[in-house]
Design a protein that fits this description.
With about 290 residues, the protein is an all-alpha fold. About 75% of the residues lie in helices and about 0% in strands. It contains 15 helices and no strands. The chain starts with 7 loop residues before the first helix and ends in a 7-residue tail after the last helix.
Amino acid sequence: MATLDLDWEEVRDQLRAWREDNTRHSEEVVDMWEYCLKHYKTKLGDERWMVEEQVFVAGLDCNRLDIAEPCLMALNEQFPGSLRVRKLKAMRLEAMEKFDEAMDVYDSIIRQDETNSTARKRKVAVLRGQGRMTDAIKELTEYLKLFMSDSEAWQELCDLYLKEGDYSKAAFCMEELILSNPHNHLFHTRYAEIKYTQGGLENMEIARSYFCQAAKLNPGNVRALYGLFMSCTQVLSSSKLSAQKKKETQQLATWALKEVSERYSRSRTNAMDGSKILETLGALSITDKA
C-alpha cells in the first residue's frame, strides 16, 4: 500500500483501525503522517489528538524526534497539565536516554494518581532497559499489589524471575495466570517447562501433568506433546516409580511420541527426526513391560 496513493480519509481510517487493533505499525504511521495526514490534521476534528498521540509514539519507535516533538507540543498546548501528556514527555526523555529525569516524571504522576497503571509500567520498562532487574522486580511486585488481575504484568514478572534464575517464583507467577485463565494452553505449557527446568521427580511429575493438560486443551500444541514425552522419559528414569505408574507413564510417552511423529510427518519438515526419537525411546526401555 503506497502512502502517496491514499487520500487523507483513507489514511485516517487506517490509523484508526490500527488503534482499535492495538497495533503499532510505526514506520507506516510515520510515513502516512509525514507525506499525507499532517497536511489535513485540522479536518480530523477531536480525533486529531488521538492521531497526534499515535504519531508521537510511532516517532519515538522510529527514532524520529523531528516527527514526535511537534506532536507533543500540539498535545501540550491543547491539554496543559494533563497526566497523559506528562507521560508522553517522560517517554520522550526515555528516547533521549535521560532515564533519571523520566523516572522523576513518572514518580510525580504516581504521586498525583496512585492508580496510574501506565506510569508504573513505564517505570518497570525503564528499570529493565537499564539492566536493573532487581529494582524492576520490586517495582512490578508493588504494581501487582494494586492490579492483581493484570495478566501481562504477571507474564512480565515471570520473565524477569526467569532471567534471574528464580524458577520457584517464576512458577508462582504462572500459577496465578493459570488460575485467572485455566483454559489457556500456553500458560500450562510454560508452567510445565519451568517445573521441568527445576528438575527432580516431583517437579517432573508436575510437568508431565501440565504438559498433558496443555495437549488436551490444544491437541495441535506440538511443544506440549514433545514436553510431555520428555518429562515422561525423565520420570521413567527414577527408581522410585511404582510398577503401575511406570506402566502408565510408558503408555503416555508412547502416545505423545506417536502424536509428535504424525504431526511432523504431515508437515513434511525435518525440524525433528522421528527415527532418532524412536531410538531414544527404545534406549529408555519405554516399550518394555513393567
